[in-house]
Amino acid sequence: MLDLRRQYAPLQQELLEALGHVLETQHFILGEPVASFEAAAARHLGVAHAVGCASGTDALWLALAAAGIGPGAAVVTTPFSFFASVSSILRAGARPLLADIDPATFNLSPAAVQAVLAGPDGRDVKAILPVHLYGQPADMARFAGMAKTRSLRLVEDAAQAFGARSGRAAAGALGDIAAFSFYPTKNLSASGDAGMVTTDSPDLAERVRMLRQHGMRRRYHHDELGWNARMDGFQGAILAVKLKYIDRWNEARRGVSANYDRLFRAAGLADPGPYPDRGIVLPREVPGTRHVWHQYVVRTKRRDELRAFLSERQIGSEIYYPVPLHLQQALKPLGYKEGDFPESERAAREVLALPIFPELRPDEQETVVNAIAEFLS
Prior knowledge:
Aspartate Aminotransferase, domain 1; Aspartate Aminotransferase, domain 2; 7-stranded mixed beta sheet; 2 domains; 377 residues
């Protein structure tokens, strides 16, 4: 699925020098390496403030907590995402309300969100939390309209979407506040856990900085119950180096995606969608957006059989995500049941992520496509 050694090799000396600088300056927690990365990331995304933290999960919680989302509030989000999209809402003390996805993009459906807002729990909603799944921006214009009409916070889960754009604005600059993850598999990756919150609001940014340090504005003076959610200097140094290359890497991912499309269509394997028939449904980029292809996810009827077939041939694949959040054991207290979100449940049965990273070679892609063609034949 991913070979990080290919990314590391040409950057080895630059990364080692950056890590050596942290050792020499002893800025192990926050400090200059993190501050430098924060400033560069804010410029890159076109936002006023970027605040580094310990993980993408912490970033989601910090964004919600800074925005005042807590007990008594409800947040609308998707059941087809990583667990943290919902667990962070619960950690903030709020209640998740789920809405189904669009079958073509896998992103949160604006129509489904509107139905939740119009329902009996709609009066409790204080925020909408769309996820830019797989690197594709959600329909933020429609969510922004809903948020403005209802005076709601718009919180982006941009964990998989560094560099993605909707129109001229970057993911992370499309709502009131946003959360990023730099987990090692992400398109902009740390060498461990790390995350970031972005916002144009100086008040929200100040609250995030306070909350990430146990609620301190002054050392050992705790104004609120925060958390230890600080980014360490090593991760800040690594991310500052990699940030210089992210546009090039994202463009390479777009090239890999385009080549997959060409190969699948040339082989006659592409179904029109949104649901698979005899072949596979290819992912698509929504007009007016810029997908960064964190994942290249197809749909197919015999997904589990295909994955086993690829595994036998030593071809990596992954399922993001096999169990929608409303059916997770830990989230049963939310009160949802099978059948409540049919699009998410069907996607969980059909999606398969194929290998994609900037250094993936065309001949390796041909191997993947030829194996899928063999299986479908």
